[in-house]
């Protein structure tokens, strides 16, 4: 069983610096209405990035393995935040946008399905607390 260790250190006021198992660091900060001063990412938005990044890495790997032609690819996550504390995401839409003139839509859909249903651990974690809606959109360039 693998273990990840992340160390998050208070830098003063409302800012923290967090390590990543890769050795990279990033800053975390509160929203302006909560005393934010300086640079940093907001924690709840980061988990949406983690969701998109996890699935995106799966899909990018499958695009390469399937030798698919894709000029550009992006993932948008749109999440509903509850009103009461603790505020949590209770519904998330994940939109996969593929751009290109020779898109193999069936294989790209299969790549997304494999990520969503089999490979993405962050997606599985999200299923524990939110309704997830998946959309795959194809764009000619």
Main features:
141 residues; alpha+beta; GMP Synthetase, Chain A, domain 3; three-stranded antiparallel sheet; three-stranded mixed sheet; 3 helices; OsmC/Ohrsf; Putative redox protein
Low-confidence spans: none
Shape: globular
Total strand segments = 6
Largest sheet features = 3 strands, antiparallel
Arithmetic mean pLDDT: 95
Residue fraction in strands: 25-35%
Pfam families: OsmC
Organism: Flavobacterium haoranii
Protein name: Putative redox protein
InterPro entries: KH_dom-like_a/b, OsmC/Ohr_fam, OsmC/Ohrsf
Can you walk me through this structure?
The structure is a single chain. The chain is globular and about 50 Å long. The chain is an alpha+beta fold. The longest helix has 23 residues, at 43-65. It has helices spanning 43-65, 105-119, 121-127; strands at residues 8-12, 15-19, 25-29, 72-81, 89-99, 131-139. It has a three-stranded antiparallel sheet, with no helix packed on it. The protein folds into two domains: 1-41; 46-139, GMP Synthetase, Chain A, domain 3, CATH 3.30.300. The model has no long low-confidence stretch (mean pLDDT 95). α1 packs across α2 and α1 (43-65) packs across α3.
């Amino acid at each position: 069983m693998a273990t990840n260790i992340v160390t998050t250190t208070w830098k003063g006021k409302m800012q923290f610096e967090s390590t990543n198992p890769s050795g990279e660091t990033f800053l975390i900060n509160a929203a302006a209405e909560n005393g934010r001063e300086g640079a940093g990412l907001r924690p709840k938005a980061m988990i949406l990035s983690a969701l998109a990044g996890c699935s995106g890495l799966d899909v990018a790997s499958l695009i390469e393995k399937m030798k698919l032609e894709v000029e550009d690819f992006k993932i948008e996550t749109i999440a509903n935040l509850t009103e009461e504390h603790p505020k949590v995401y209770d519904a998330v839409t994940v939109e996969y946008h593929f751009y290109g003139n020779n898109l193999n839509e069936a294989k790209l859909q299969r790549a997304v399905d494999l990520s969503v249903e089999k490979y993405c651990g962050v997606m599985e974690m999200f299923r524990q607390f939110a309704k997830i809606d998946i959309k795959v959109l194809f764009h000619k360039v």
